[in-house]
Design a protein that fits this description.
Helix content: 40-55%
Radius of gyration: 23 Å
Strand content: 5-15%
CATH superfamily of the largest domain: Periplasmic binding protein-like II
């Protein structure tokens, strides 16, 4: 009898050890950056091996997958994500009923970029991101253009004219890689339109976004934005309307354009393309007068589904991202991101992220407010107006008027 009991105990112990190594828990993460999909899955696999908690990473983004639409479907399914991404107040307002409130998590004291609402913490900053007008310095040097002078519309006009006149000599197809067609309304209705919301304003100045959310439009700022958009469209590639994200990034990565309207999230694409030219950032000339900063912020946040059975595992996953050497290595070296945590001492080696660090250190930043517009407003309401302007269906004056009417509809 004792031998039988002993054998049973050994079997139970063996089963327990096996279960610890192969936890039945599956932590599902739904995220919107397809460019870090591979790196994130590798990190998740390593974390799973270390903790015994299985992790499933599902990525949906770019022009091939509408993240917001698919996220809603995921959250209405029987297999809801435990961790998902929101982008600012618009995303929080959409899903606040199911978003977990962080309280004493250690990572909170290591960042100043957590997402808060009414003084409470709900979002873990995915990274620091930024965009301006990214440029190929080799091309600008060959054309005799100093990028430090590109701080206003007149300077850009002169530079674009110079580049256009030397296209054959420089071996470029167009001056700017820009997308405005279907699937790229996040480039226009969100990122480009943020120039209206923050260009020329002190960091944190929310006056324009506050007015927008109350249905108040600034005619002068809209006209300044329209002048900038018109210039970008005029000197863009032929794929302005027909191209997709890969086309836009590929043209710049292969030296076919001198500028690209994108942020440092394209670094993995540039590295994959093996670029051999120096890059940098210049400000958007979206406001009248001098523009001396680029758009910098924590644009997206991991949030936890408070209805999940795996809240504690989700908290630990995020804590380890912020606090461990493996997490830091993933963020900086594998995913080529600029972390939002003070304890990270690694410096990005990827080209645009390294440039972002310089701008961050210089304190030259305009705020990200595009994600504080009502959910869907930028992509669904404003994006199509950009599309019509790019097609030549509406004039610049009509472009301004239609933007103004959309803003006023929010009153």
């Amino acid at each position: 009898m004792k031998k039988t009991l002993l054998a049973l105990l050994i079997l139970v112990a063996a089963f327990s050890l096996s279960a610890c190594g192969k936890n039945d828990t599956v932590l599902k993460i739904y995220q919107n950056k397809i460019e870090i999909d591979s790196a994130m899955k590798d990190y998740a696999a390593a974390w799973s091996e270390k903790t015994g908690v299985n992790v499933e990473v599902v990525s949906c983004g770019g022009d091939s997958c509408g993240y917001q639409t698919q996220l809603l479907a995921e959250l209405q399914s029987d297999d809801q994500p435990d961790i998902f991404i929101i982008e600012g107040m618009g995303g929080y307002n959409e899903y606040q009923e199911i978003i977990y409130e962080f309280s004493d998590d250690a990572w909170i004291s290591d960042t100043s970029l957590e997402f808060t609402s009414n003084g409470k913490v709900y979002g873990f900053p995915v990274s620091v991101e930024a965009w301006g007008m990214a440029y190929n310095k080799d091309i600008l040097d060959a054309a005799g253009i100093n990028p430090s002078t590109l701080t206003n519309l007149a300077a850009y006009k002169s530079a674009f004219e110079t580049l256009e006149a030397q296209k054959d000599t420089l071996g470029i197809d167009a001056v700017v890689s820009m997308g405005a067609g279907t699937g790229l309304s996040w480039v226009t209705g969100l990122h480009n339109f943020n120039g209206y919301l923050s260009s020329g304003l002190a960091y944190g100045d929310s006056s324009v976004i506050d007015d927008l959310n109350n249905g108040i439009a600034d005619q002068g700022r809209l006209e300044d934005l329209a002048d900038w958009v018109e210039l970008l469209f005029q000197y863009s590639t032929d794929s302005l309307l027909e191209g997709n994200y890969d086309t836009q990034v590929g043209d710049f990565a292969t030296g076919k354009t001198a500028f690209i309207h994108q942020g440092n999230w394209i670094d993995p694409n540039l590295l994959d393309a093996g670029i051999d030219f120096e890059v940098g950032y210049a400000p958007h000339a979206a406001a009248s007068g001098e523009n001396d900063s680029i758009f910098i912020g924590a644009p997206s946040y991991y949030v936890i589904n408070k209805n999940s059975d795996n809240v504690e595992e989700a908290r630990q996953y995020l804590e380890d991202l912020a606090a461990t050497e493996e997490g830091h290595d993933y963020m900086v070296n594998k995913a080529n991101m600029v972390p939002a945590f003070a304890s990270v001492t690694l410096v990005p080696t990827s080209p645009l992220s390294a440039e972002v660090m310089k701008w961050v250190q210089s304190g030259k930043a305009y705020s990200w407010w595009q994600n504080d517009m009502p959910s869907g407003f930028g992509m669904e309401q404003l994006g199509p107006i950009y599309d019509l302007f790019a097609q030549g269906v509406i004039t610049k004056a009509e472009f301004v008027n239609q933007l103004k009417l959309e803003i006023e509809s929010l009153s």
